[in-house]
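Lab notebook, design round three. We kept the backbone fixed and only want residue identities now. Task for the bench partner: fill in a sequence for the structure below.
Input structure tokens:
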């Protein structure tokens, strides 16, 4: 069980697509990202408490089982690999061209992410809940939906105790040992 404290914080992670490209504008790519995030959580053996996938970025809240750097490496690495593979398989050459980086003269690789990730430590249950609410309201603030629970690619329904039958990604909320009733 995870008791959130200074000694055992949560990480609030933000990863932004290269040049803020709207890579995740289709449900198909959001599904790929959700499956990859689930794979990253299982491979990295960390808990995932909240998430949202926006058109050009994602937010996630995890435990601190690993360092924030390692957690981001799992998340960004696996999502990046899966999304780029998906784009290649489907022949989305114009998207791939936008994600291309020259590493040597006429040698290229693709990179999904801006390499300036943002990590904040959440040291208390109150800080966690503030960021959870922020994540869940992100699609509303962006004008994608009117109500947070209508946005499919977010953990809001898990937190409300009403996940969809085909929820894209379930959370590890049972791993949090609450000291207060804040949910």
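Proposed sequence:
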């Amino acid at each position: 069980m995870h008791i959130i404290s200074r000694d055992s914080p949560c990480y609030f992670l933000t990863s932004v697509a290269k040049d803020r490209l709207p890579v995740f504008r289709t449900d198909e790519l959001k599904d790929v990202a959700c499956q990859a995030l689930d794979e990253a959580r299982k491979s990295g053996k960390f808990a995932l408490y909240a998430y949202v996938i926006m058109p050009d970025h994602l937010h996630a809240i995890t435990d601190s089982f690993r360092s924030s750097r390692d957690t981001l490496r799992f998340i960004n690495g696996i999502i990046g690999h899966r999304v780029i593979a998906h784009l290649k398989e489907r022949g989305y050459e114009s998207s791939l061209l936008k994600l291309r980086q020259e590493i040597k003269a006429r040698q290229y690789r693709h990179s999904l992410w801006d390499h300036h990730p943002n990590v904040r430590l959440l040291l208390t249950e109150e800080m966690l809940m503030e960021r959870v609410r922020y994540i869940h309201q992100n699609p509303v603030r962006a004008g994608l939906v009117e109500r947070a629970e209508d946005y499919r690619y977010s953990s809001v329904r898990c937190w409300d105790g009403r996940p969809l039958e085909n929820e894209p990604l379930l959370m590890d909320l049972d791993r949090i040992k609450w000291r207060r009733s804040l949910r």
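Keep this in mind before ordering anything: Helices lie at 27-44, 68-90, 93-98, 125-141, 156-159.
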